[in-house]
Amino acid sequence: MLSGCGTADDSSTTTTPASGGALTPIKLQLQWFFQAQFAGYIAAVDQGFYKEQGLDVQLLEGGTDIVPQTVLATGKADYAVAWVPKALASREQGAGITDVGQIFGRSGTYQVAWKDSGITSAAQLKGKKVGNWGFGNEFELFAGMTKAGIDPGKDVTLVQQQFDMQALLKKEIDAAQAMSYNEYAQLLEAKNPATGKLYTADDFSVIDWKKEGSAMLQDAVWANESKLSDPAYQQQTVKFLTATIKGWAFCRDNAEKCRDMVVAKGSKLGKSHQLWQMNEVNKLIWPATGGIGVVSDADWKQTVDISMTTKNQTGDTVLKKAPEGLAYTNDYINQAITAAKAAGVDVNGASFAPTTVTLTEGGA
Predict the structure, then answer these.
(1) How far apart are CA 131 and CA 310, in angstroms?
(2) What does the alpha-carbon distance between residue 231 and residue 213 come to, in Å, rounded to a whole number?
(3) Is residue 3 over pLDDT 50?
């Protein structure tokens, strides 16, 4: 999947951009399996937005054993989607990558407990069994606990959590890590054996790291740092980001159509789950006051500060020092925003309003 020069869809090579000429093949490495978390990229392929820019984009599906920023750094992809702290850790280890588009402006990480547990803040996790995924996903949780005066290595019992919510549902742990757009919905898709009906939000309490002040930047588009010195790659990056903006704006305004595209792409999750995910992902992007994809200096600083100061249970931090060199730049996303606006795209989504999604059992 990560090698070779072919594209996923041979028919995509038969269309040429409006300006004429052959399409430039591009590989984008996603950080997880196909789901609405990546709907904007899927829509940009499906709706021909990349082709309008002269690009033939192949989406490389992620998985548990795929590190997107490494795939990018080793030249097996042209761009990659990755969380900022994880990518910066790889960068510190020598991966030459640059954040050129901070698509998710907000964190979607929760810690979820049963409502009757009384756990509503990080401080109340003391003495509890606290689930987390590890693999660099835990630092918002650890930063929140540290900020609340809790030592993550001593004051809680840490439990390695699977990428589902079964441990919480079975009450094997007191609080579970969840993404607002994925695992949290899995709770609301589960049947309460006492009532025979689905659980509701009233059955749970949510610790939102945005409110606790320990949120970190997540999904960003990363480019090859050394190649950014090449004017052709610079222009390609602007084109790629312009089409990507168009894709995400399309999914903001056409959530159900994008849900259908994701399901058709082969997502393992059902239609109601994907619509929930599309709605929640849109909340992490829109409204985008400075324009979609622009890196906020304050949010970047908070992410870096947490990465350097928050220790996990083994006493390690994400970063040993502040990133050096071109860790991020707004140059290309600002050019892309200008181009997208000229094409009539709403790049801010100031009027975006999330919808209410009705989940079904198992997310079908």
Answers:
(1) 18
(2) 39
(3) no
Sequence-distant (6+) residues with CB within 8 A of 34 are: 42, 59, 61, 262, 265, 266, 267
- Among residues 122, 150, 188, 217, the alpha carbon closest in space to that of 357 is found at 188
Give me the pLDDT at residue 1, please.
27
SS (H, E, C) 263-282: HHCCCCCCHHHHHHHHHHHH
pLDDT-derived band of residue 12, with 50, 70 and 90 as boundaries? very low
How far is Cα 213 from Cα 336, in angstroms, rounded to an integer? 30
Q: Please choose, from the candidates 166, 56, 184, 164, the residue with its C-alpha nearest in 3D space to the C-alpha of residue 111.
A: 184
Query: Rounded CA gap, 283 and 277, in Å?
Result: 10
The per-residue pLDDT for range 23-41, each reduced to its tens digit, is 999 999 999 999 999 999 9
5: buried, middle or exposed (CB in 10 Å: 19+, 13-18, 0-12)?
exposed
Residue type, 266: G
**Which pLDDT score, from 0 to 100, does residue 70 have?**
97
Q: How many CB atoms lie within 10 A of CB 134?
A: 12
Over residues 93-106, the mean pLDDT reads 98
Q: Measured at the alpha carbon of residue 263, what is the angle toward residues 112 and 189, in degrees to the nearest 5?
A: 30
CB 178 within 8 A of CB 111: yes
Token pair, residue 149, equals 């005066």
pLDDT digits (tens, 9 = 90+) for 142-189: 999 999 999 998 999 999 999 899 999 999 999 999 999 999 999 999
Beta bridge pairs of residue 129: 157
Question: What's the maximum distance between 2 C-alpha atoms anywhere in the chain?
Answer: 64
